[in-house]
Amino acid sequence: MNRRVGRAGTTVTARPTFCVLFSPPLSLFFAQGAGHQGTARRIVVGQYLGFAAILAVALAAAFGVTFLPEAAIPYLGLLPLALGMKAAWRAWRHRDDGGGEQQTIEGGPKTLEVAGVTFANGGDNIGVYVRVFATAGVGEMNVYAVAFLILVVVWCFAGRFFAPPGHRKHSAGVLLPVLIGLGLLILIEGGVFGL
Fold first, then answer.
1. Where are the transmembrane segments (predicted)?
2. What angle (nearest 5°) sits at the alpha carbon of residue 159, between those of residues 183 and 143?
């Protein structure tokens, strides 16, 4: 019984720690998509796709199968960096026609962009999940996975709640440096540049 209580505590503490890391990009995605029909659905689906990929890799690694070598994880920072640079380029290209900012945020974030940022930002957490899953039985792994996936909804509500109200017009200008900074942070902390 104590083991289950301990595992429940691990689930409750591991997931919020994971969520805190994602809050700024998630809130900005919601701000960027404000007023666009279907944005919340695309963001939530993107979160589930990204986190399901993290869970799949972690579960497979717990069983001894590795999809990503440890040295490749820091390079996941290239994904948010590329998305931020692409959006910055698009905004810069349309700077003179007055529609650059609107062009950048039109329709809100795409599902695969959200999934990619989620996976890239959570890549360093795979090691934590592998250790948790490796010490758990199959039944406990299922409980963890279901609990984490349920907590994605809670986290999405929090991200939507903390999205800056009335900042839709400016969210693209904020999201670009956040994505670029997130990508650089992942690369730097992973030791890609030898720093």
1. 48-68, 143-162, 174-193
2. 90
